[in-house]
Amino acid sequence: MSVIRSRDNPRVKRWTKLATDASFRKREGRVLIEGPHVVAEALQAQLEPLALIVSESGLKKNEVQKLVGAREPVVLGDRIFAIVADAETPPGIAAEIAIPRSLDASSKPAVFLEGVQDPANIGAILRSAAAFGVGEVVLDRACADPWSPKVLRAAMGAHFKLALRQVADLAQALDDFQGTLVCTLSSGGTPLKALCLAGRVGWIFGSEGRGVSSALAAKAGLTVTVSMAAGSESINVAAAAAICLHEGYSRGEAQ
């Protein structure tokens, strides 16, 4: 089995660009995913890799060998794999896949994100959304790219259970939503436990610093504030999303 050891190899250059360039990912409709767990989730979602990439040392690991199976991987020298992989500790396996088409999520809750720029927060929100029965997540252009390596790692495979859209006009996406829109506020909203969550719900979460803009908040039929201990001003947007989405999911389960 041949091993690629040159950073000037055209495929290495392509994968490096997929990992670092959001506009290239969008043009190509392709994304580079990393790590055994995320690759396994993609395979479980029946997303066959366009290229399965392993490092020389990674190919010796049992979990990597199981994922490779009968496929013919592209083997990179460890130093070259580290150039392609975004993680600080290269995971030994990666894959180039087509960005999946959106799933039908018209009957499930939705999440709308405005200006959430931290990739770790985006990934955590996607992970909570998948765990708590959300069907669709819609992001505005000010949000971090949902297909960036950092978001993919933080989401741990949630991408393949959700319909994801990044739109130029989030206000229009809210207008098009068929259901009740709920805007999260740091203060002044209805306590979460007292909120009526009948029917399909669309949750609106805002940026880490400013929250939801007044223009988008005005489109919501309901506002909600997560109760906190005295002296606490706010919580992380990913934490707020997890709390709200769990509450909505729990109520649905109880019905």
Summarize the model shown.
By secondary structure, the protein is an alpha/beta fold. The chain has helices spanning 10-20, 22-28, 36-44, 62-68, 78-84, 119-131, 149-155, 170-176, 214-217, 237-254, and strands at residues 3-4, 30-34, 51-55, 74-76, 93-98, 110-113, 136-140, 163-167, 180-184, 190-191, 201-205, 222-225.
Polypeptide structure, described:
The strands form two sheets. The chain has a seven-stranded parallel β-sheet with strand order 8-7-6-11-9-12-10, sandwiched between helices. With 255 residues, the chain is of the alpha/beta class. α6 (119-131) links the parallel β6 (110-113) and β7. α1 packs parallel to α5, α6 packs parallel to α7 (149-155) and α6 (119-131) runs parallel beside α10. The protein is elongated. It is built from ten helices and twelve strands. The protein is 35% helix and 20% strand.
Write the layout of secondary structure elements.
Blueprint: E1 3-4, H1 10-20, H2 22-28, E2 30-34, H3 36-44, E3 51-55, H4 62-68, E4 74-76, H5 78-84, E5 93-98, E6 110-113, H6 119-131, E7 136-140, H7 149-155, E8 163-167, H8 170-176, E9 180-184, E10 190-191, E11 201-205, H9 214-217, E12 222-225, H10 237-254
Parallel strand pairs: 1-4, 3-4, 6-7, 6-11, 7-8, 9-11, 9-12, 10-12
Antiparallel strand pairs: 2-5, 3-5
